[in-house]
Recover the amino acids of this structure.
């Protein structure tokens, strides 16, 4: 393939630099996904006491010990309150959580599901930017 003035299209130092710069730019766009802290565990608390650490790698549905009225579901690396006997169902409406720092709470039952850690790619609520 010929470029301008009869020289090959991909020859020369300048072309090499442009290609490397484009690849580096593409890598920068991939960094947030590479470094997103998708956790592999979740913690279940009752009255601020850790009841159980749950693996998110194995799909299952269960009730935390002593809370037969609450069902929790682990599916595809995420966790959620599947059902609860609480009147407002806010915990069920929260849906799945899977990223570090996320949590779901069932206040009437005093249960909390928390994904440990912090997500460095999450927006900072104070500045509106990324931490």
């Amino acid at each position: 393939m010929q470029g301008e003035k009869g020289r090959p299209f991909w020859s020369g130092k300048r072309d090499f630099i442009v290609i490397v710069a484009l690849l580096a730019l593409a890598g920068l766009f991939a960094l947030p996904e590479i470094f997103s802290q998708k956790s592999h565990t979740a913690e279940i608390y009752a009255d601020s006491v850790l009841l159980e650490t749950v693996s998110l790698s194995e799909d299952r549905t269960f009730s935390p010990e002593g809370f037969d009225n609450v069902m929790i579901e682990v599916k595809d690396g995420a966790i959620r309150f599947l059902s609860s006997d609480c009147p407002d169902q806010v915990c069920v409406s929260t849906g799945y959580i899977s990223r570090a720092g996320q949590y779901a709470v069932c206040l009437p039952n005093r249960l909390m599901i928390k994904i440990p850690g912090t997500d460095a790619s999450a927006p900072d609520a104070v500045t509106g930017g990324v931490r």
Q: What stands out?
A: Strands lie at 41-46, 49-55, 60-62, 71-75, 78-83, 103-106, 111-114. The longest strand covers residues 49-55. The chain has a mean pLDDT of 82. Residues 80 and 95 are 6 Å apart (CA to CA).
